[in-house]
Amino acid sequence: MWEIGLQLRFAASLPDNPTDAELATECKRGNLRAYERLYDLHSARMKSVAFHMLGSHADAEDAVQETFLKVYKAVSAFEGQSSLATWIYRILINCCYDVLRRQQRRAEASPIRDHPSHSDLPLKIALRGALSALNERQRLVFLLFEVEGLKHSEIAGILEVPEGTSRSWLFEAKRELKRMLTESAV
Amino acid sequence: MKFECGDLERAFEHAQLMPEAREHLKHCAACRKEYRLWNEISSTARELHEEWDTPALWPAIRDVLGKLPNPQGRRPWWAAQRTWMLTAAAVVLASTVGVFSVAPWQQHPPQEGQEPAAVRPLASSGNRDLLTEQALAEVERTESAYRQSIDKLSHLAQSELLKPRSTAGVNCKEKLKLLDDAIAETRANLEQNRYNMRLQTALADLYREKKQALQELLTSDQKN
Ligand SMILES: [Zn+2]
Fold first, then answer.
1. For residues B114 and B69, is the Cβ–Cβ distance under 8 A?
2. Fewer C-beta within 10 Å: chain B N or C terminus?
3. Domain map (residue ranges) of chain A
4. Is the Cβ of A78 closer than 8 Å to some Cβ of chain B?
5. Where are the alpha helices (DSSP H) in B48-193?
């Protein structure tokens, strides 16, 4: 019987360029076209954010899938106080933290990896390595702002901090990255 | 203030210091190197955006979501009406029973030292079933009227659907076929269990979709 429901929820129409409110309404109705639109709009960036947080494509895809599941289950409580995108990224980041906590528990017995000196590597590779050595909040703000191109106002909404805090964490992140990248092997 | 090498980091944080920093950079190679690296971190960061194909990801998500119950657990409008009618029936029942149960008590209050009469059942289950049956019959009549109005709309849309080169007609025809099949199956299932609210909800959603599709078709016909 659910196949009929699935067909129906796929047959449900959606405006050509739905507003945030229209998308939220359709998501609340269970209209899978609305979720598909959200996927089309955000999945590329969501995958990239999750990849940088988790370090593997497979884990990133799992996190994106888990995020959509949580969005679906929680959307009836979404009241539009933030944009739908902000809310979804917040859920994604929490999903990634859940995975990280599980990974951390598994890795506790493993030896700590040495971070190589970054000074001799091409900048892109060195930056990727240095990024993984930042603390969580610095890495997250750097990822969202510099890598994914979000605005400080959007990041502030996702992380539920003032905009000034987002700017300040980004500065700390860049200062730390610069330090690591210029650090000589001497 | 005289801008010195140690001030460069503050200039990165506070943009208002940048004009002075730029003046300093003209004469200081070490700070120029720092400044270039600061900017390169941002430009290189954009290259770290990671893209890869995941053709199976959305279908997997869709399949999982499709198996979940509707987020709001919504009920069809005729179910809401049924609830309203049952509530009204309950009120009528309660007030009727109230007359019988309260009125005698008012007429014959227990005398001092006399035990109150044992509480009698308020209504027989037979009466309740009858009221539920009546309410459901009313729901079904309403549903039938709704279906007839959609049939009229279908009739009006026939000419648009029969136009050979109408893209809207082709798309809509496919969608209507899908909906009609689903409606037929749901109705057949409902005949086995008239009280199944999940099926009532599904049927209401299907009718609503069909109505919307027909209206869109007729509107597009008027626009063309
Ligand atoms: Zn200097």
1. no
2. N
3. 10-112, 115-186
4. no
5. 57-66, 77-107, 125-162, 167-192
A45 by Cβ neighbours in 10 Å (0-12 / 13-18 / 19+) ranks as: buried
CATH of A115-186, one of 3.20.170.30, 3.40.50.280, 1.10.10.10, 3.40.630.30: 1.10.10.10
- Whether the Cβ atoms of residue B52 and residue B45 lie closer than 8 Å to each other: no
Å between B96 CA and nearest CA of chain A: 40
Q: In this predicted model, what pLDDT tens digit does every residue of B88-100 receive, in sequence order? A: 555 554 554 444 3
Same domain, B11 and B108: no
CB contact at 8 A, B37 and A182: yes
pLDDT at B191: 72
| Percentage above 70 pLDDT, chain A | 84
Reply yes or no on whether the pLDDT at A64 is more than 70: yes
CATH 1.10.1740.10 fits A10-112, yes or no: yes
Residue B137: its pLDDT value, please? 67
Q: How distant is the alpha carbon of residue B20 from its chain centre?
A: 57
Domain with B23 in it: 1-36
Judged by CB atoms closer than 8 Å, whether chains meet at A8 and B45 is answered as: no
Q: Which residue has the higher pLDDT, A46 or B211?
A: A46
CB contact under 8 A, B179 and A8: yes
Tell me which residue of A93, A85, A39, A38 sits closest to A63, measured CA to CA: A93
User: How many structural domains comprise chain B?
Assistant: 2
What are the C-alpha distances in Å from A76 to residues B5, B33, B135?
Answer: 55, 53, 30
Q: Is the pTM of this model over 0.90?
A: no
Judge whether B33 and B23 are in contact, CB under 8 Å: no
Q: Is residue B110 part of a domain?
A: yes
What is the torsional sign of CA A33, A37, A40, A42? Answer: negative
Say how far apart CA A141 and CA A160 lie, in whole Å. 12
Residues B57-70 have a mean pLDDT of 92
Mean pLDDT of chain B: 70
Closest by Cα among A50, A53, A16, A55 to A33:
A16
Distance A174 CA to ligand 1 centre (A): 19
- Tokens 């998501």, residue? A27
Measure the CA–CA gap between B140 and B146, rounded to whole angstroms. 10
Q: Given a cut of 70, is residue B47 above it in pLDDT? A: yes
d(CA A163, CA A159): 10
